[in-house]
Amino acid sequence: MKAAVLREVGKPLQIEDVQINKPGPHEVLIRTKAAGLCHSDLHFMLGSYPTVLPTVLGHESAGVVEQVGSEVRTVKVGDHVITCLSAYCGHCDQCLTGHLSLCVSPETKRDKDEEPRLSAANGPMAQYLNLSSFAEQMLIHEHACVAIRKDMPLDRAALIGCSVMTGVGAAIHTSSVRPGETVAVIGLGGVGLAAVNGASIAGAGRIIAIDNVGSKHNLAMQFGATDFIDASQTDAVKEVLEMTKGGVHHSFEAIGLSKTAEQAFNMLRRGGTANIIGMIPVGQTITLMGAAFLGEKKLQGSMMGSNRFPVDMPRLVDMYMSGKLKLDEMISQRIKLEQVNEGFDDMKKGGLARSVIMFD
Protein backbone atom coordinates (compact mmCIF):
# COMPACT_ATOMS: atom_id res chain seq x y z
CA MET A 1 0.00 0.00 0.00
CA LYS A 2 1.04 3.63 -0.45
CA ALA A 3 1.86 5.57 2.71
CA ALA A 4 3.49 8.85 3.79
CA VAL A 5 6.63 7.95 5.76
CA LEU A 6 8.68 10.10 8.12
CA ARG A 7 12.27 8.87 7.94
CA GLU A 8 14.13 11.88 9.28
CA VAL A 9 13.11 14.74 11.56
CA GLY A 10 12.87 18.03 9.73
CA LYS A 11 12.56 16.40 6.31
CA PRO A 12 9.47 16.04 4.07
CA LEU A 13 7.39 12.89 4.23
CA GLN A 14 8.15 10.30 1.55
CA ILE A 15 5.44 8.43 -0.36
CA GLU A 16 6.49 4.78 -0.21
CA ASP A 17 5.15 1.26 -0.59
CA VAL A 18 4.64 -0.14 2.93
CA GLN A 19 3.69 -3.71 3.83
CA ILE A 20 0.72 -4.27 6.14
CA ASN A 21 0.07 -7.48 8.08
CA LYS A 22 -3.12 -9.51 8.54
CA PRO A 23 -5.43 -8.88 11.53
CA GLY A 24 -4.64 -10.65 14.78
CA PRO A 25 -7.44 -11.89 17.08
CA HIS A 26 -8.40 -8.40 18.35
CA GLU A 27 -7.36 -6.37 15.32
CA VAL A 28 -9.19 -4.67 12.47
CA LEU A 29 -8.02 -3.94 8.92
CA ILE A 30 -9.51 -0.68 7.63
CA ARG A 31 -9.54 0.85 4.14
CA THR A 32 -8.69 4.50 4.80
CA LYS A 33 -11.10 6.95 3.19
CA ALA A 34 -10.03 10.27 4.72
CA ALA A 35 -7.29 11.55 7.03
CA GLY A 36 -6.90 15.04 8.46
CA LEU A 37 -3.59 16.85 8.79
CA CYS A 38 -3.15 17.69 12.47
CA HIS A 39 -0.65 20.01 14.14
CA SER A 40 0.38 17.07 16.33
CA ASP A 41 1.79 15.34 13.24
CA LEU A 42 3.80 18.48 12.52
CA HIS A 43 5.21 18.46 16.07
CA PHE A 44 6.69 15.01 15.43
CA MET A 45 7.92 15.97 11.95
CA LEU A 46 9.80 18.93 13.42
CA GLY A 47 11.17 16.97 16.39
CA SER A 48 9.27 18.85 19.10
CA TYR A 49 8.15 15.42 20.30
CA PRO A 50 10.14 12.19 19.83
CA THR A 51 8.90 9.09 18.02
CA VAL A 52 10.46 5.91 16.67
CA LEU A 53 11.59 6.27 13.04
CA PRO A 54 10.83 5.44 10.32
CA THR A 55 7.08 5.69 10.82
CA VAL A 56 3.88 6.31 8.91
CA LEU A 57 2.29 9.46 10.32
CA GLY A 58 -1.43 10.33 10.57
CA HIS A 59 -3.95 9.83 13.37
CA GLU A 60 -7.18 11.66 12.44
CA SER A 61 -9.09 9.35 10.14
CA ALA A 62 -12.14 7.45 9.03
CA GLY A 63 -12.64 4.45 6.76
CA VAL A 64 -14.39 1.16 6.05
CA VAL A 65 -13.66 -2.16 7.78
CA GLU A 66 -12.24 -4.76 5.36
CA GLN A 67 -11.23 -7.61 7.71
CA VAL A 68 -11.61 -8.42 11.41
CA GLY A 69 -9.76 -10.77 13.74
CA SER A 70 -11.30 -13.90 15.23
CA GLU A 71 -12.09 -12.28 18.60
CA VAL A 72 -13.33 -8.88 17.39
CA ARG A 73 -16.80 -8.05 18.70
CA THR A 74 -17.10 -4.28 18.37
CA VAL A 75 -17.12 -3.85 14.55
CA LYS A 76 -17.73 -6.00 11.49
CA VAL A 77 -16.73 -6.05 7.82
CA GLY A 78 -18.38 -3.20 5.94
CA ASP A 79 -18.79 -0.92 8.95
CA HIS A 80 -17.91 2.74 8.54
CA VAL A 81 -15.61 3.71 11.40
CA ILE A 82 -13.83 6.63 13.00
CA THR A 83 -10.42 5.84 14.46
CA CYS A 84 -9.02 7.18 17.74
CA LEU A 85 -5.39 7.35 18.86
CA SER A 86 -6.35 6.77 22.51
CA ALA A 87 -6.81 3.03 22.18
CA TYR A 88 -8.01 1.43 25.42
CA CYS A 89 -7.75 -2.05 26.94
CA GLY A 90 -11.09 -1.98 28.78
CA HIS A 91 -10.01 -3.46 32.11
CA CYS A 92 -7.20 -1.36 33.67
CA ASP A 93 -7.97 1.03 36.52
CA GLN A 94 -8.19 4.01 34.14
CA CYS A 95 -10.69 2.22 31.89
CA LEU A 96 -12.76 0.87 34.77
CA THR A 97 -13.08 4.32 36.32
CA GLY A 98 -14.24 5.85 33.04
CA HIS A 99 -10.97 7.46 31.93
CA LEU A 100 -10.52 5.62 28.66
CA SER A 101 -8.37 8.35 27.12
CA LEU A 102 -5.74 7.82 29.85
CA CYS A 103 -5.26 4.09 29.24
CA VAL A 104 -1.63 3.18 28.48
CA SER A 105 -1.97 -0.60 28.51
CA PRO A 106 0.43 -2.33 26.10
CA GLU A 107 -2.31 -4.82 25.23
CA THR A 108 -3.52 -2.60 22.39
CA LYS A 109 -0.17 -3.02 20.61
CA ARG A 110 1.64 -6.08 19.29
CA ASP A 111 4.32 -7.69 21.46
CA LYS A 112 7.94 -7.28 20.40
CA ASP A 113 8.18 -11.00 19.56
CA GLU A 114 5.22 -10.78 17.15
CA GLU A 115 5.36 -9.73 13.52
CA PRO A 116 4.92 -5.92 13.30
CA ARG A 117 1.72 -4.49 11.89
CA LEU A 118 3.74 -2.47 9.37
CA SER A 119 7.03 -3.11 7.60
CA ALA A 120 9.07 -1.84 4.66
CA ALA A 121 11.15 -3.62 2.04
CA ASN A 122 14.33 -2.19 3.55
CA GLY A 123 13.55 -2.74 7.24
CA PRO A 124 11.10 -2.13 10.08
CA MET A 125 8.34 0.48 10.10
CA ALA A 126 6.91 1.84 13.35
CA GLN A 127 3.19 2.43 13.86
CA TYR A 128 2.39 5.99 14.94
CA LEU A 129 -0.05 6.67 17.78
CA ASN A 130 -1.71 3.26 17.37
CA LEU A 131 -2.94 4.22 13.88
CA SER A 132 -0.62 5.47 11.07
CA SER A 133 -3.45 6.79 8.92
CA PHE A 134 -1.49 8.54 6.16
CA ALA A 135 -1.82 5.24 4.32
CA GLU A 136 -4.30 3.44 2.11
CA GLN A 137 -5.00 0.94 4.91
CA MET A 138 -4.74 0.78 8.70
CA LEU A 139 -4.28 -2.26 10.93
CA ILE A 140 -5.35 -1.39 14.46
CA HIS A 141 -6.71 -2.78 17.71
CA GLU A 142 -10.50 -3.02 17.75
CA HIS A 143 -10.57 -0.56 20.67
CA ALA A 144 -9.01 2.13 18.47
CA CYS A 145 -12.11 2.61 16.31
CA VAL A 146 -15.87 2.88 16.59
CA ALA A 147 -18.64 2.16 14.08
CA ILE A 148 -20.81 5.07 12.97
CA ARG A 149 -23.94 5.55 10.85
CA LYS A 150 -23.30 5.06 7.13
CA ASP A 151 -24.97 8.28 6.00
CA MET A 152 -22.21 10.30 7.68
CA PRO A 153 -19.71 11.73 5.12
CA LEU A 154 -16.34 10.15 5.93
CA ASP A 155 -14.25 13.25 5.20
CA ARG A 156 -16.12 15.08 7.96
CA ALA A 157 -16.15 12.00 10.19
CA ALA A 158 -12.34 11.92 10.07
CA LEU A 159 -12.19 15.29 11.83
CA ILE A 160 -14.06 13.84 14.79
CA GLY A 161 -11.19 11.36 15.21
CA CYS A 162 -8.89 13.98 16.75
CA SER A 163 -9.44 17.73 16.48
CA VAL A 164 -13.18 17.74 17.09
CA MET A 165 -13.13 15.15 19.87
CA THR A 166 -10.21 16.98 21.49
CA GLY A 167 -11.75 20.46 21.35
CA VAL A 168 -15.38 19.63 22.05
CA GLY A 169 -14.36 17.12 24.73
CA ALA A 170 -12.13 19.65 26.47
CA ALA A 171 -15.09 22.01 26.83
CA ILE A 172 -17.73 19.44 27.75
CA HIS A 173 -15.76 16.77 29.62
CA THR A 174 -12.43 18.15 30.86
CA SER A 175 -13.61 21.59 32.00
CA SER A 176 -17.36 20.93 32.26
CA VAL A 177 -18.52 24.24 30.80
CA ARG A 178 -21.95 25.12 32.17
CA PRO A 179 -24.75 27.21 30.62
CA GLY A 180 -24.13 30.93 30.98
CA GLU A 181 -20.42 30.70 31.85
CA THR A 182 -17.69 32.68 30.09
CA VAL A 183 -15.05 31.05 27.88
CA ALA A 184 -11.89 32.14 26.05
CA VAL A 185 -10.19 30.02 23.37
CA ILE A 186 -6.64 30.82 22.25
CA GLY A 187 -5.76 29.51 18.79
CA LEU A 188 -8.33 28.88 16.08
CA GLY A 189 -7.03 25.87 14.21
CA GLY A 190 -9.15 22.74 14.06
CA VAL A 191 -8.91 22.02 17.79
CA GLY A 192 -9.56 25.60 18.87
CA LEU A 193 -12.57 25.96 16.59
CA ALA A 194 -13.92 22.69 17.97
CA ALA A 195 -13.47 24.05 21.52
CA VAL A 196 -15.45 27.14 20.53
CA ASN A 197 -18.16 24.89 19.06
CA GLY A 198 -18.15 22.65 22.15
CA ALA A 199 -18.51 25.63 24.49
CA SER A 200 -21.41 26.86 22.37
CA ILE A 201 -23.10 23.45 22.48
CA ALA A 202 -22.60 23.40 26.26
CA GLY A 203 -24.45 26.72 26.52
CA ALA A 204 -21.64 29.14 27.38
CA GLY A 205 -22.95 32.68 27.64
CA ARG A 206 -19.90 34.38 26.17
CA ILE A 207 -17.17 32.80 24.04
CA ILE A 208 -14.13 34.92 23.24
CA ALA A 209 -12.08 33.56 20.32
CA ILE A 210 -8.43 34.67 20.11
CA ASP A 211 -5.99 34.31 17.22
CA ASN A 212 -3.09 36.15 15.60
CA VAL A 213 -4.79 35.91 12.19
CA GLY A 214 -7.46 38.59 12.02
CA SER A 215 -9.14 36.99 9.02
CA LYS A 216 -10.37 34.14 11.24
CA HIS A 217 -12.95 36.46 12.82
CA ASN A 218 -15.86 35.35 10.63
CA LEU A 219 -14.92 31.67 10.93
CA ALA A 220 -14.88 31.93 14.73
CA MET A 221 -18.37 33.43 14.69
CA GLN A 222 -19.65 30.57 12.53
CA PHE A 223 -18.49 28.12 15.20
CA GLY A 224 -20.27 29.96 18.01
CA ALA A 225 -17.92 32.69 19.23
CA THR A 226 -19.55 35.86 20.54
CA ASP A 227 -16.36 37.95 20.46
CA PHE A 228 -13.04 37.93 18.61
CA ILE A 229 -9.64 39.30 19.59
CA ASP A 230 -6.83 39.74 17.07
CA ALA A 231 -3.87 38.99 19.35
CA SER A 232 -1.43 40.46 16.85
CA GLN A 233 -2.93 43.90 17.47
CA THR A 234 -3.52 43.98 21.23
CA ASP A 235 -2.77 42.43 24.63
CA ALA A 236 -5.21 39.50 24.64
CA VAL A 237 -5.12 39.00 28.42
CA LYS A 238 -5.83 42.67 29.13
CA GLU A 239 -8.67 42.66 26.59
CA VAL A 240 -10.31 39.57 28.09
CA LEU A 241 -10.07 40.90 31.64
CA GLU A 242 -11.67 44.18 30.58
CA MET A 243 -14.39 42.55 28.47
CA THR A 244 -15.42 40.18 31.26
CA LYS A 245 -14.79 42.52 34.21
CA GLY A 246 -12.40 40.14 35.90
CA GLY A 247 -11.75 37.12 33.69
CA VAL A 248 -13.39 34.01 32.26
CA HIS A 249 -14.64 30.84 33.94
CA HIS A 250 -12.81 28.61 31.43
CA SER A 251 -9.92 29.19 29.06
CA PHE A 252 -8.55 26.82 26.43
CA GLU A 253 -5.06 26.98 24.95
CA ALA A 254 -5.08 25.24 21.55
CA ILE A 255 -1.67 26.16 20.13
CA GLY A 256 1.00 24.50 22.26
CA LEU A 257 3.23 27.36 23.43
CA SER A 258 4.41 28.35 26.90
CA LYS A 259 3.44 31.97 26.31
CA THR A 260 -0.15 31.21 25.35
CA ALA A 261 -0.49 28.69 28.18
CA GLU A 262 0.50 31.45 30.61
CA GLN A 263 -1.99 33.78 28.95
CA ALA A 264 -4.75 31.19 29.33
CA PHE A 265 -4.13 31.09 33.08
CA ASN A 266 -3.76 34.85 33.47
CA MET A 267 -7.12 35.61 31.83
CA LEU A 268 -9.07 33.55 34.41
CA ARG A 269 -11.44 34.93 37.00
CA ARG A 270 -11.17 33.70 40.60
CA GLY A 271 -12.08 30.01 40.64
CA GLY A 272 -11.54 29.66 36.89
CA THR A 273 -9.91 26.78 35.03
CA ALA A 274 -7.28 26.97 32.28
CA ASN A 275 -7.14 23.93 30.00
CA ILE A 276 -3.96 23.26 28.02
CA ILE A 277 -4.97 21.35 24.91
CA GLY A 278 -2.00 22.22 22.70
CA MET A 279 1.18 20.14 22.74
CA ILE A 280 3.81 22.33 24.38
CA PRO A 281 7.21 21.13 23.06
CA VAL A 282 9.25 18.87 25.32
CA GLY A 283 11.58 20.90 27.54
CA GLN A 284 9.55 24.11 27.58
CA THR A 285 8.35 25.41 30.94
CA ILE A 286 5.49 27.61 32.10
CA THR A 287 5.96 30.48 34.57
CA LEU A 288 3.03 31.61 36.72
CA MET A 289 2.59 33.97 39.65
CA GLY A 290 2.17 31.76 42.72
CA ALA A 291 -0.18 34.17 44.46
CA ALA A 292 -2.76 33.60 41.72
CA PHE A 293 -3.51 30.18 43.15
CA LEU A 294 -4.92 31.84 46.26
CA GLY A 295 -7.88 32.73 44.06
CA GLU A 296 -8.49 29.00 43.45
CA LYS A 297 -7.49 29.26 39.82
CA LYS A 298 -6.70 25.91 38.20
CA LEU A 299 -4.33 24.85 35.41
CA GLN A 300 -4.90 21.41 33.87
CA GLY A 301 -4.17 19.35 30.82
CA SER A 302 -6.67 17.67 28.54
CA MET A 303 -5.89 14.39 26.77
CA MET A 304 -8.01 13.93 23.65
CA GLY A 305 -10.90 15.76 25.28
CA SER A 306 -11.10 13.29 28.20
CA ASN A 307 -13.04 11.14 25.76
CA ARG A 308 -15.06 7.95 26.06
CA PHE A 309 -14.89 7.77 22.28
CA PRO A 310 -17.04 4.66 21.65
CA VAL A 311 -19.92 6.68 23.15
CA ASP A 312 -18.83 10.22 22.33
CA MET A 313 -18.00 9.91 18.63
CA PRO A 314 -21.34 8.46 17.45
CA ARG A 315 -23.05 11.22 19.46
CA LEU A 316 -20.89 13.84 17.74
CA VAL A 317 -21.88 12.34 14.40
CA ASP A 318 -25.54 12.77 15.37
CA MET A 319 -24.83 16.37 16.41
CA TYR A 320 -23.35 17.05 12.99
CA MET A 321 -26.24 15.42 11.18
CA SER A 322 -28.69 17.55 13.19
CA GLY A 323 -26.77 20.77 12.46
CA LYS A 324 -25.35 21.42 15.93
CA LEU A 325 -21.72 20.42 15.25
CA LYS A 326 -19.83 22.43 12.64
CA LEU A 327 -17.63 20.31 10.37
CA ASP A 328 -18.20 21.53 6.80
CA GLU A 329 -16.76 24.92 7.73
CA MET A 330 -13.63 23.33 9.23
CA ILE A 331 -12.35 21.73 6.01
CA SER A 332 -10.21 24.29 4.18
CA GLN A 333 -9.05 21.96 1.41
CA ARG A 334 -9.14 18.35 0.27
CA ILE A 335 -5.88 16.94 -1.06
CA LYS A 336 -4.34 13.71 -2.32
CA LEU A 337 -1.79 11.67 -0.36
CA GLU A 338 0.94 12.89 -2.70
CA GLN A 339 0.17 16.48 -1.65
CA VAL A 340 0.70 15.85 2.06
CA ASN A 341 3.87 17.95 2.32
CA GLU A 342 2.18 20.90 0.60
CA GLY A 343 -0.63 20.51 3.12
CA PHE A 344 1.78 20.84 6.03
CA ASP A 345 3.42 23.86 4.36
CA ASP A 346 -0.02 25.48 4.25
CA MET A 347 -0.53 24.60 7.94
CA LYS A 348 2.68 26.40 8.89
CA LYS A 349 1.35 29.61 7.34
CA GLY A 350 -1.50 29.58 9.87
CA GLY A 351 -4.39 30.59 7.65
CA LEU A 352 -6.19 27.23 7.29
CA ALA A 353 -8.45 25.33 9.65
CA ARG A 354 -7.99 21.78 8.31
CA SER A 355 -6.63 19.97 5.26
CA VAL A 356 -8.01 16.48 4.62
CA ILE A 357 -6.37 13.74 2.55
CA MET A 358 -8.92 11.91 0.42
CA PHE A 359 -8.20 8.33 -0.63
CA ASP A 360 -9.81 6.79 -3.70
TrEMBL record:
PROSITE patterns: ADH_ZINC. This is Zn-dependent alcohol dehydrogenase. Keywords: Metal-binding, NAD, Oxidoreductase, Zinc. Residues 10-357 form the Enoyl reductase (ER) domain. Its cofactor is Zn(2+). SUPFAM superfamilies: GroES-like, NAD(P)-binding Rossmann-fold domains. It holds the Pfam family ADH_zinc_N. The keyword Acetylation does not apply. Coiled coil: none annotated. It comes from the Bacteria. Belongs to the zinc-containing alcohol dehydrogenase family. The lineage of its organism: Bacteria, Pseudomonadati, Pseudomonadota, Alphaproteobacteria, Caulobacterales. PANTHER family: ALCOHOL DEHYDROGENASE, ALCOHOL DEHYDROGENASE CLASS-3. Gene3D superfamilies: Medium-chain alcohol dehydrogenases, catalytic domain, NAD(P)-binding Rossmann-like Domain.
